[in-house]
Amino acid sequence: MRTTPDALRNLRAGHPWLFEGSIRSVNHEGAPGDLAVVFDDDRRFAAIGLWDPASPIRVKILHHGRPIAVDAEFFRSRIAGALARRSRLVAPPVTDPPAPATTAYRVLHGENDGLPGLVLDRYGHVAVLKLYSTAWIPHLHVVVPIIRELVPSSSLVLRLARTLHEQDLHGLTEGMSLFGPEITSPVPFFENGLRFEADVVHGQKTGHFLDQRENRIEVGSRANGGRVLDVFCCTGGFSVHAAAGGARSVLSIDSSPHAIEAAVRNMALNADRPAVVACRHETVVGEAFATLERLVQERRRFDIVVIDPPSFARNALSVPKAMQAYERLAELSAPLVEIGGLLVSASCSARVLMPDFLRAVHAGAAHSGYELDEEQRTEHPLDHPIGFNEGGYLKTLWSRPRRARAAVPPFGPAQ
To answer: What is the rounded distance in angstroms from the CA atom of residue 278 to the CA atom of residue 224?
Structure first.
């Protein structure tokens, strides 16, 4: 196959995607998972990847540069390399006293680990493989035994991206076990010594949002004696860490009753800790913007406010509304932070770049009459590496709101 000059330059620079519109010619139409070789105009090898005829990303690039065999040894090398990059999580150093246990982490981060469309997470004794492309199905008979060998687990659960549910999956079903017993109950795991459980069969993503682990630990380390607000709390990761860190109260907000139930269960799993027992944990099932508006009207104040929403920008057309949503969240959350308190604002939208996100948060705070003194900016943890520009999605601003001299008129609520 041949591509446009721009696409060829991107491939040679290591980009893992070849879009349908960048393909100039193909020798023949392939089936999902066929190996697609890209040549330049002089018929020199440029790259090789997996053919995906149902996706606008027509080829998921596995390798570029010199020709290489894509076989069991290739996949073994990629998976072993990913494990080596995560050695601090896979086999943490022995310390005295022992470091708190963490038994959940991302093993394979798709394109960023050289395996586009393939994600592997581990929760204690269970591994979860999530496919974002049917192009991987013909290769599972090779990949799964390597995972079983290199990532010892009692079961490997299969999760499928929503876009795959209407495609031919050759008998594969959401939540089935590719080896080991079927999983019928939440899987327990540790995060920095705290107990959690993940619904690896029905839960969002693969059952838990592992990418915020370091930020959750950081919030816990700052929570002693404070009042904490956790908005979009999902399964209560920030809430549990805050309570274990000594927060005197935690308010968890989510629009999903199931998420709130999970947050309550995860808090209860840590009831052997005096700090968790002493913390007053309140929950609200409600839409985030409306609930924040009510808290502002009630003049509630918190020492730490965590705003960790889902992805607002799932495509390019949704970016403007996403920016409005980030502004509105900052406008509503800044007044809730006690003087000297901490505002933690996060975005998991890859299409929203860090500078734009920062501008939105600062602008939103200004609408309510606050300036933000930035303390730090954090991005991806060790097990979620960034291998190409579009691979960087997570961004978090830690700031301390203070009253500005003059407020900026608000633009109105997010739609």
So the answer is: 12
